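Before a colleague's protein record goes any further, I have to sign it off. I want your independent view on whether this chain really folds as the C-alpha cells say. The record follows directly below this note.
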Amino acid sequence: MAKKIVGVYQSQVDVEKKFEELLANGASEEDIYIIIDGQENNAPESDLPIMDLSTKNKDKSLWGGIRKLFILYPDKDLLEEKMIGHGLSANDASSYANDVLNGSYLLTVEEHAVQ
C-alpha cells in the first residue's frame, strides 16, 4: 500500500508526540510506521511501530562486493530500495533517505488513513 510522509523528526520524543496526534485524529496504529536506520539510532526500544530498514547488514557475497564498487552511495541506494518496498514513492525515498541515514525518524502513514 502507498505511504504518505508525515514528517522527519530528530528525537524519539518528537516522533512519539506526532504518533499520538495521528492516533487522536483517527489513524489506526496499524497504519503508522516509523522508519529508522537502526545502526544510526541504535534501534530504540519502543512500543511504537519502528521499521528498522538498517543498511548496515551489508551483502558479504561476491555480488555484494562487486555492486558496492559500481554504486557511488551504496547505503543510500539500498535504503531507497527498502523504502520503495515499504510503499514510498521513488521520489519520497530519494528525498528522505539521507535524513534516515543521518539518524532521523521518518514518520509515514498509509494514504487511506489520512485526509
Confidence is low (pLDDT under 50) at residues 66-73.
